[in-house]
Design a protein that fits this description.
Layout (H helix, E strand, L loop, with lengths): L1 H31 L6 H18 L4 H24 L7 H23 L15 E3 L2 E3 L1 H23 L1 H11 L1 H6 L4 H26 L8 H13 L4 H21 L8 H12 L14
Antiparallel strand pairs: 1-2
Helix pairs in contact: 1-5, 1-6, 1-8, 1-9, 1-10, 2-3, 2-4, 2-8, 2-9, 3-8, 5-6, 5-8, 6-8, 9-10, 9-11
Length: 290
C-alpha cells in the first residue's frame, strides 16, 4: 500500500504540471473560441528564452525566469495581434488552422536559432527529494509540481479578482454583451494570450528542467491536448481534474504494467469517458437552437 501511495503521489505531481499546461489551452478557448495547437511550441520557446537568459547570458536563474515569462507573454501577444486579430469574424476553423501552421513555424525557428541539440537547463529545484513519511518523491518532479500548483493558484486568482480577469470571464461568457458593456474585447483577447503564454513558459521551464530542452519539447503540449478534451475545453476545473487523472493513470500503468502502456491506457480511458460525456468531465454541453 505504501508503494502504491508513493507511485500515486508521483503521478499526481506529474498531473499538476499537465494541469498547468492544460489551463493555457482552456483560457484561450474560453475567451476566443480558438483551440491553440501551437501552445506546446510557445511553451518550448519559453524554455528556450530561460536557457538563453540563464545560460548564454549568465543571469541569475530568478531574473532569467522573470525575463523568460515576459518575453513569452510578448510572443503570445504578438501572435494574437499579427496572426489572429485579422481573422476576427471568420469561422473558428480558419484560426485553428493558422495555429496549426504556427506549430511548424515555431518548431523550425527554434532549430534555426538554437539548433536541434539537447540542452540542460540550470537547476531551479533543491537537490533534496520530498519525503512524506516513508514515501519518496524525486526532487524535480515534486518541486516542479509545487511550482505548477502555485502558478495555477495565481492564474485562478487573476481570473477571479482582477479587472483583466473579469473582462476575460465576461468575454468568455458573451463577447457581444461584453463589448456593449464597454469592455475592449480585442484587448481582452490580447491579455488572454499573454497570460496563456506566460503560464506555458513556466510549464516549459519546469518540464525542461525535469527532462532536457530541444525543439521536440513542444510535442508535450499536443499530448496534453487530450487532457484538455477529457476535462472539457471550456472548464478550468476540468483541466485541473483531468491533468491529475492522466498523470496518476500514467504512473500506475507504467509501474504496474509496462512503460509501453503508459501512453496508451490514459487515452483508452479518455475515449471511454468521451463516449459517455462527449463534452468532457466538467465541460458545458453545447446547446443549439433550431
Amino acid at each position: 500500500m505504501e508503494f502504491f501511495l508513493e507511485v500515486s503521489l508521483v503521478g499526481l505531481a506529474v498531473g499538476g504540471v499537465y494541469a498547468l499546461i492544460a489551463l493555457g489551452y482552456v483560457i484561450v478557448y474560453r475567451t476566443t473560441r480558438v483551440v491553440n495547437f501551437a501552445h506546446g511550441n510557445i511553451m518550448m520557446f519559453g524554455a528556450y528564452f530561460f536557457f538563453t537568459f540563464a545560460t548564454l547570458l549568465d543571469l541569475p536563474w530568478g531574473v532569467a525566469l522573470v525575463l523568460a515569462l515576459i518575453a513569452t507573454a510578448l510572443l503570445g501577444t504578438g501572435i494574437e495581434r499579427v496572426l489572429l486579430r485579422p481573422m476576427l469574424g471568420r469561422t473558428p476553423v480558419v484560426a485553428v488552422m493558422a495555429t496549426f501552421g504556427l506549430v511548424f513555424v515555431l518548431h523550425g525557428s527554434a532549430q534555426i536559432i538554437w539548433t536541434a541539440n539537447d540542452f540542460f537547463l540550470p537547476s531551479i529545484f533543491p537537490n533534496r527529494p520530498i519525503v512524506i513519511g516513508t514515501m519518496y518523491i524525486p526532487a524535480n518532479t515534486g518541486y516542479g509540481a509545487l511550482i505548477a500548483l502555485v502558478a495555477i493558484g495565481a492564474l485562478l486568482a487573476l481570473l477571479r479578482f482582477t479587472r483583466g480577469g473579469l473582462a476575460m470571464r465576461a468575454a468568455a461568457s458573451d463577447q457581444v454583451a461584453a463589448s456593449a458593456l464597454g469592455i475592449n474585447v480585442p484587448a481582452t483577447f490580447n491579455l488572454t494570450w499573454a497570460c496563456a503564454a506566460a503560464s506555458a513558459a513556466l510549464a516549459g521551464v519546469v518540464v525542461g528542467s525535469i527532462t532536457t530542452l530541444n525543439p521536440n519539447l513542444g510535442m508535450i503540449g499536443l499530448s496534453v491536448l487530450g487532457v484538455v478534451i477529457l476535462g472539457g475545453l471550456d472548464s478550468l476545473a476540468g483541466a485541473i481534474l483531468a491533468g491529475l487523472i492522466v498523470g496518476w493513470l500514467e504512473a500506475i500503468t507504467g509501474f504496474y504494467l509496462s512503460a509501453s502502456y503508459k501512453d496508451v491506457v490514459p487515452f483508452v480511458v479518455l475515449l471511454v469517458i468521451l463516449m459517455i460525456r462527449p463534452h468532457g468531465l466538467l465541460g458545458a454541453p453545447t446547446v443549439e437552437r433550431l
